[in-house]
Specification:
The chain is built from 6 helices and 7 strands. By secondary structure, the chain is of the alpha/beta class. The chain has a single domain, classed as 3-Layer(aba) Sandwich (Rossmann fold), CATH 3.40.50.10320.
Length: about 220
Amino acid sequence: MSKTALEAFDRILVLAPHTDDGELGCGATIHKLIQLGKEVHYVAFSTCEESVPEGFPKDILAHEVKAATARLGIRPEHLHILNYPVRHFPAHRQEILEDMVALNRKWKPDLVFCPSDFDVHQDHQTICSEAKRAFKNTSLLGYEFIWNNYKFATQCFIELSEANIEKKVEAMECYKSQSKRLYAKDKLIRGVANYRGLQVQVEYAEAFEVIRWIVR
């Protein structure tokens, strides 16, 4: 059996500005990578305590991200939760960069996922710009948020299975505190995956911006 392009990578790092961003942007791809036996680390830079809906404990998202990433197959010791204040990442740019540099030295990932260059959210922009500085010698893919992107460069498509999509849906269902948000719905998740798949003549796919691609 021929190898897939993803099999060239051994250690993958997912940079999520907020809990649930990584699942939304590349959750099905995360599951596929873990199915391939890859080591996937996930870093959430904020648990968004200031934005938790009324009626939920302030730390609810820390618990929900643990459940969600477990559904995707990420090992508990590979989940890392930081606590930068939501919507204020630009004021903490240097500290975020230093965290990323430390992560790069510790894990030496050969593939990193982060928000796209086209993402207009200030926290997402900060994570993307600092990732480009911290991971200069690493392949870097930008994931998609259709509600944050005025445009998006669909330069990379990763084909996915029904099982990959189902796990992404299950992961998002772990976020009970976010259940009113349209992006967390099964219908939208499958619709976007179907649309991206149609563009490359497969049933399901996730699309990415190629920020840096290193061939060795």
